[in-house]
Here is the input.
Amino acid sequence: MPKKGWIAGSAQAPGGSRNYKLWVPATLEEGKAAPLLMLLHGCTHNAEDMAEISGMNEVAEESHFLVVYPEQSFLANMLKCWNWFDPKHQARDAGEPSILAAILQQVGSSHAVDSDRVYVAGVSAGGAMAVILGATYPDLFAGIAVSAGGEFKSATSVASGLAVMKQGGPDPAEQGRVAFEAMKPGLARKARRRMPIIVFHGSADDRVHPVNAQQIIAQWTATNACLAAEHGDSGFALSEKVVVDQVPAGHAYEKHIYTDQAGRLLMENWLVHGMGHAWSGSPKTHKYGDAKGPNASAEIWRFFNAAGEAKQ
Here is the structure.
């Protein structure tokens, strides 16, 4: 019988090697291909930290999917940040994207994975790297979730990365076209008409300015327009609905919901009022997890189910 719980592994690619931890829910049905979520930690963290901050393993137990937590090494970055700001780690088949793709292949070689339901999520530096993976490996990932991250190729150096964190990145429309160009090798392997994305950000985030969340949405609006045009849809348009609510005894938030002209969910942008640089809805109060916010992990999985490529 396959092992359940934590499984440690390592994968190697042209860009190097990284360790990872895979969470296999006890509720997983034997012999049935399961969805998989790759969850990328923020700076200074590891797999167990990310699992504790997010509570994603509990969501996986309830909804029957695998979660893989790649781990950045001190040798690659002294703060264990994913190197999202370095051009060497922003392309397919190179750097950290190639390693993270190899981790997926490694997990798929030992577990039954539903290749149409593989997603990537991340927080902070991990969120920025999740955006890079969505653009460079659209043949592997069917959706993206970002907490306190940035748009595709928003920075090209440490200095510009720090500037992005303070004030946002370059023109999202142009970055949207750049992301579409980056997607083409992957799209040649697996056609994709759309890339769903959900974003969370705290209004009081003093490390990564909330303008980055708006830019991610604007960038992927442009990228999705390019994807639609590639398939002959020149009338791409989105409708926006805003929901304002509050977690009982917690933070107020506003949720922007974007649907396409066919009424299909494509993007969501959650702004959590009063939350800092943290994962929203952490199971318990943590330096990098805010228990008073909406449950990002549960909402991310709900969003992927509603907007995933498998339903198109």
Remarks:
- The chain has a mean pLDDT of 95.
- The helical segments are 47-54, 56-63, 95-110, 125-136, 158-167, 172-189, 211-230, 296-307.
- The CA atoms of residues 150 and 158 lie 14 Å apart.
